[in-house]
Input
Amino acid sequence: GSYDLGLPGNGFTSTNYSSINDMIVESDNKFLVVGFDNGNCVMRFNEDGTRDLGFGTSGKVIINGTTSVRSVSIQQGDFTVANPDRIVVAGSGSVSGSNGVLIARMSLAGVLDSSFGGGLGYVTSYVGPNPNVDKVLLLRSGFATRTIYVIGVNYPA
Output
């Protein structure tokens, strides 16, 4: 129950102008974090709390067109090069000037997946005037079928 004083910052890791909405631990004990850090983004930290500079650009991936990144998960691949594990995030984004649900997919190295969302690496969909995404859940059936579920609330205007 005590702080790990061996970590940088006496047990705390922080970034400037940031907020965190969700976090998961990867199998290599690195942390994937979604939130805001000078833009809506995905960040990865090493086990010791330092930013993983090999992920995205200087440890983070900014997702353009988002108004919020709220949840992160790992989409399991299979044992082939053509179908690797991927990072999936969900939040809200702009759809023709209105708020919508945003889903983005990227490699474990933090590169947006150009095979997802018509080459953009993300999709947005209008579902009502005020969507609030709470969680992204991933279902895998067999070797090929992968389904992405987004859970949240849509507040009336």
Notes: The CA atoms of residues 53 and 126 lie 34 Å apart. Strands lie at 18-25, 31-37, 40-45, 60-62, 66-75, 86-95, 98-106, 122-125, 130-141, 145-155. The chain has a mean pLDDT of 83. The radius of gyration is 16 Å.
